[in-house]
Design brief:
Keywords: Membrane, Transmembrane, Transmembrane helix. By secondary structure, this protein is an alpha+beta fold. Helix 1 crosses helix 3. It contains seven helices and five strands; from the N terminus they run E-E-E-H-H-H-E-E-H-H-H-H. The strands form two sheets. It has a three-stranded antiparallel sheet.
Length: 219
């Protein structure tokens, strides 16, 4: 038998020993950190409320008290068998509800080596195994290079990046003079005008200077 860490739910007799209920007080129960005290009490109370429907009544007590008589004892035996079947049915319903509401825990009724109710963790929910898995995941994340998702393969770079993002923008080609508007500045097509001779740009002609002096009365 596989050795598991589990909670063994104790039972105690009630109704003069004619019925058994599960112990709701976790004081003497070893929980192994699987459940808290409040969780254990709430789960066992819900289970006892279900199997309570199969408890024997006053009639069963009277029939059992008349044990020396054969007929009452036979009737009690029939009723007791029916009550045990109902108890088993309600117990199965309660176990199924507990397992559905607690996906990390597993409650089961064990028949061998003795009939006991146990609660254990499901496989894969062990805290040590979960901590180891988390540690391995953290190590893998730390080993990954930064910006791993933003890197692009060298062969794929020409297809993913435009040429303008890697080089300076190309120089603007000069426009032919035939395509330039008349009033537009000719930045690329027109050559600078030739420089004028210094005598023509800075000094007026001699004839003009003499005429100007005669008209002003300086001569």
């Amino acid at each position: 038998m596989k050795n598991r860490t589990r909670i063994v739910v104790p039972t105690r007799p009630c109704q003069a020993g004619m019925f058994e209920k599960f112990e709701e007080d976790p004081y003497d129960v070893e929980l192994h950190g699987i459940m808290t005290n409040d969780e254990f009490t709430a789960a066992i109370q819900a289970l006892n409320n279900l199997i309570k429907k199969a408890r024997p009544g006053k009639v069963d007590g009277a029939l059992l008290a008349a044990g020396p008589l054969m007929v009452p004892l036979m009737v009690w035996g029939v009723r007791h068998s029916s009550q045990m079947k109902k108890r088993k049915k309600h117990l199965q319903v309660g176990i199924a509800e507990f397992n559905a509401n607690n996906p990390t825990l597993y409650m089961r009724w064990n028949r061998k080596p003795k009939s006991i109710l146990t609660i254990e963790r499901r496989e894969g929910q062990d805290p040590t195994a979960m901590a180891e898995a988390q540690f391995v995941g953290d190590m893998v994340i730390q080993a990954m290079p930064p910006h791993h998702n933003n890197q692009v393969a060298p062969n794929a770079q020409p297809y993913m990046t435009a040429p303008q993002s890697q080089h300076a923008p190309p120089a603007q080609a000069p426009m032919p003079s035939s395509h330039v508007a008349p009033n537009a500045p000719q930045q690329y097509t027109m050559a600078p005008p030739p420089a004028m001779p210094p005598t023509q740009a800075q000094f007026p002609p001699a004839s003009h200077a003499t005429a100007a002096e005669s008209s002003s009365g300086l001569v």
